[in-house]
Amino acid sequence: MSESFPRLHARTRRFTLGVPRGFTISPDGARVLFLRTRSGTDPVTCLWELDTATHVERLVVDPRALDTDEENLPPEERARRERSREQAGGVVAYTTDSAATLAAFALSGGLYVTEPAKGTTRRLETPGAVIDPRLSPDGRHVAYVTSGSLRVQDLATGDDRALATPESDTVTYGLAEFIAAEEMDRHRGYWWSPAGDALLVERADEAPVQTWYIADPANPDRPAVPQRYPAAGTPNAGTELFVLGLDGSRVAVPFEHEYLTTASWDSHALSIVTMSRDQRTRRLFTVDPATGRSTLVREDTDEAWVEVVTGVPGHLDDGSLVWVADDEGGRRLFVGDRVVTPPTLQVRDVLDIDRDTVLFRASGDPTEIQLWTWDGHSLMPVSTASGVYSGRLAGGVGVLTEQSLEREGVSATVVLPSGMTIPIPSLAERPGLDLRVHLGRSGTRDLSTAVVFPSWHEPGSRRLPVLLDPYGGPHAQRVLASQGMYLTSQWFAEQGFAVVVADGRGTPGRGPAFERAVLNDLATPVLDDQVDALQGVAQQYPDDLDLSKVAIRGWSFGGYLAALAVLRRPDVFHAAIAGAPVTDWRLYDTCYTERYLGDPHTQPEVYDQSSLFADAAKLERPLLLIHGLADDNVVAAHTLRLSSALLSAGRPHTVLPLSGVTHMTPQEVVAENLLLLQVDFLKKSLGL
């Protein structure tokens, strides 16, 4: 008998195992390195290489052959994987030298270097567990972090020395602090110089950050784990930058702003990007590595907030700056002093710069993310069919990944300068669902909406109970032209629901004004838009939706939205499942929360308006709260305090605590049974 969808969904880590990812193209375009597990249920990631001339791929590193214990990870690496939402094990990240002839990676705290051409992999001796190893561009050295120290090892001699050692147990060198990794998509804390003779290094000191304690009540013999958590309105970690030379030199690089959003060091410039605490000002500087003096290149301001865009700054071969900023109502690509994309094309990120060509992702239709290039003269689409695309570009060779509504999973293709294509097979499992997804627009605000019906449903034959399945918050979309976005929604539909997924105000893809509609209010616009979308869909399918039986489920921001829905609109929503919900924004982190709600000390009424606690007495519908007790992102206090407020108000509700579970809920049995329990709760709550 084939496995059930919930079990397969859990075993395959949401069908991500077996999918090729993490591509590196050699500068001559002759080879493509990538990561992939050996099957769709194998959680151990291997390193592979594809020869673009022979079209032959081969296994470079199989962690199992290195006899390592994947469970023996240093705490810093576990935290890094949680921040990056990494679901697999094995070689989950690697770096190469500039020629891509060497690759370095950490495995169970050990440091490894491999030479793909020779097929040899060796473990290097280190004084401690290794985090984030990075090869120098010339391939002569590898840098890494251990116990908060930044160290460099000479690959020829084995000489290993510390370039910077922490002055206290709250200091680290070379690691991204919590806020950078969680909210600014910066997962690194040091950058090699192009010559390989120096590094730009972040020093982070968490001493100013308040300490919280993550306890495991199911195991009272274990002490609570202390965690520095910068909640809204409280101090962040202090960050500094230094240029550390291999000759032992140390040059400070001072900057004024609270946040270091990113840095880059190429043959044209050492660049840093900083952002003010209120996130209304972003500055780009070039730095003289010999003196640490900074020169302002560009400043962007916005009355609401400036957006952090990954992949920039960068430079073309002629030194022209590549940048992304909001302009004339759109998020646009700038090359030098010239804006090269129209305001109707919303740039998502920059993926690569290959000599004079910029590869980037952008959306015209918010349900699609297409690939584009700017070659110095013209703007050209790389992808044309409906879908969600990403890619890489180097040496004139491209890698294109595609997801669509027409095919299952993720396809990856190498595109040669001649136009010849080489597929990189995906080994992912097939979900085994017959998707019935209808994309469109609904409601008075013309919101992007997906309606998912059971495969067995005949249009107009009966009215089905409705399940809203949103995320609904900033920086994430659910309504995209990709089958992978709707697998769980389709499974819920097969249990007898019409599932509605809507992206309301605050979600990306429709331009800065649409995103900024949630400024100073994370509750009203997002909830109004879910109601608006539901009513719009009901008008489109009047004989298929039963609005007397409407439920809503979600996780993280979606969990907040689900709880908000039954508390404030019980006339519309009759049951809710709130997973890991933010219930009081004062308990969430500085960068995310203050971007939308400002400082809780100066705008307490804004936080009160978006909190759930004042609405506790209004609950009159079934509410299931689910929370991992080991969650260090949205801590369990969110759910426990809301539960306490509901109890004080005499409002019955259900709480499901998950011992040892983090924000990602990676455990297979937990992930499987969570789906089954949710269906059972929904059916009982709606009287089905």
TrEMBL record:
Q: Name one Pfam family in it.
A: DPPIV_N
Q: Basic and acidic residues: which segments have biased composition?
A: 75-86
**Superkingdom per UniProt:** Bacteria
Q: Where is the Dipeptidylpeptidase IV N-terminal domain?
A: 108-372
Domain Peptidase S9 prolyl oligopeptidase catalytic positions: 488-687
Matching SUPFAM superfamilies:
alpha/beta-Hydrolases, DPP6 N-terminal domain-like
Disordered: annotated segments: 66-89
This chain's protein is named Prolyl oligopeptidase family serine peptidase
Q: State the taxonomy lineage.
A: Bacteria, Bacillati, Actinomycetota, Actinomycetes, Streptosporangiales
